Amino acid sequence: MTPFHLAFPVRDLDETRAFYGEVLGCAIGRASATWVDFNLFGHQMSAHLRPQATEAARDGKVDGLAVPIPHFGAVLPMDEWERLAARLEARSDIDWLERPMVRFKGEPGEQATLFIRDPSGNALEFKGFRSLEQVFAH
């Protein structure tokens, strides 16, 4: 797997470090006074300080449900997704957009999914697949 890089806006670096580091369990990488890097399941995520950051609108549609656009996240093997979902559900401070569910049940590309929002309003989706070969199934 080749990791991707994503730079995204956040309104506060301390709350961002707490969310990505403590809530999602991301290792924290390099940082400065205006940005911080995280290892999100092997991918380089760079949070850049933008106090005027806004929340994603829920104006996309997938499988009949409204989803926030834009959003980002990670595709995980099902066992890893289940551990993440359980860890998030055990917390009372998660800003849920969509609680854990299965989408496209019984179809090619069946996947577990959940959507949360970080403290800056960025929408994140985490998907789980029983076989990663199904990620691009149609």
Automatic annotation (TrEMBL):
**Protein name (Swiss-Prot/TrEMBL):** VOC family protein
Gene3D superfamilies linked to this entry: 2,3-Dihydroxybiphenyl 1,2-Dioxygenase, domain 1
Organism placement in taxonomy = Bacteria, Pseudomonadati, Pseudomonadota, Alphaproteobacteria, Hyphomicrobiales
Organism, per UniProt?
Mesorhizobium captivum
Q: Where is the VOC domain?
A: 2-129
Q: Which Pfam families does this one have?
A: Glyoxalase
InterPro entries, sorted: Glyas_Bleomycin-R_OHBP_Dase, Glyas_Fos-R_dOase_dom, VOC_core
Q: Which residues form a coiled coil?
A: none
